[in-house]
Amino acid sequence: MSVTFCEIIKLNFSLVFSLLALSTSNVSEKTAIAQYTQNTNSSLIPNSLQVPNGQKLLLKASAKGTQIYVCKAKSEYPDQYEWTLKAPDAVLLNEQGQDLGKHYAGPTWEAKDGSKVVAKVKSKANAPQDGTIPWLLLEARSHEGNGMFRQVNWIQRINTVDGTPVQGCNEFSQNREIRVNYTADYLFYGDKTAGTAILFE
After folding, report:
1. Interacting residues of 124 by C-beta distance below 8 A, sequence separation 6+
2. Gap between the Cα atoms of 20 and 133, Å rounded
3. Are 149 and 143 in contact (CB under 8 A)?
4. Looking at the structure, do residues 177 and 82 belong to the same domain, yes or no?
5. H-type helices in the chain, by residue range?
6. pLDDT single digits (tens) 160-196
7. Which portions of the chain are predicted below pLDDT 70?
8. pTM value?
């Protein structure tokens, strides 16, 4: 049976990818970080949430916890009520599921080494999945400690799952608190001259 041109192309691609896999099996940390950064800055993240030029990815952490809401009267319609976000309460995990720190009111991210970064929301975008908290771009406004979060300038919240109340509230539940489970990925960026924090443990 004769081999078609398409089959030859497929065989050649397979050979090339196999050789590449062998040649990069001992890829350096710097190269791995560059490849990861390129992947996370893909078109999946909206332009409105992109970090400024001159920033590089320092750390990725997955958050698992709750969003805490309080039932409050609407400022423009005092006779109507809504769930208002009070604070997040989550643990931060690396890709192996190891504890990196915690995320709480501020919003604040605190590492196990004692360093902290507090940020403010600069822009947001609807999550691809309905009933899910939005994706965010946040800018650091204060730091504490000299650990992994000291050099963080920008934070992206992406890949969110859940986190929004499924039912509304009313005057009978005024000031009541609820916790809604959520997960998300947080990407932390700093100046290109900054040292690289823990990416792959």
Report:
1. 49, 134, 135, 136, 137
2. 39
3. yes
4. yes
5. 5-23, 29-40
6. 999 999 999 999 999 999 999 999 999 999 998 765 5
7. 1-43, 194-201
8. 0.75
Give me the domain span that covers residue 135. Answer: 41-191
Looking at the fold, whether 108 and 187 belong to one and the same domain comes out as: yes
Closest CA relative to residue 58, chosen from 83, 33, 81: 33
Residues 21 and 56 in one domain: no
Same domain, 51 and 5: no
Number of domains in the chain: 2
Residue 33 lies in a domain: no
Q: Are residues 2 and 72 in the same domain?
A: no
**10 and 86 both lie in a single domain:** no
User: How far are the Cα atoms of 76, 129, 137 from residue 84, in angstroms, in the given order?
Assistant: 14, 21, 20
Q: What is the dihedral of CA 81, 67, 183, 115, to 10 degrees?
A: 140
In this structure, is the dihedral angle defined by the CA atoms of residues 29, 30, 31 and 36, taken in order, positive or negative?
Answer: positive
Going by C-alpha positions, the residue among 36, 93, 39 that lies closest to residue 63 is 93
**78-89 CB burial, b ≥16 within 10 A, e <16:** eeebbbebeebb
Do 87 and 160 reside in the same domain of the chain?
A: yes
Residues 110 and 178 in one domain: yes
How far, rounded to the nearest angstrom, does the alpha carbon of residue 169 sit from its chain's CA centroid? 29
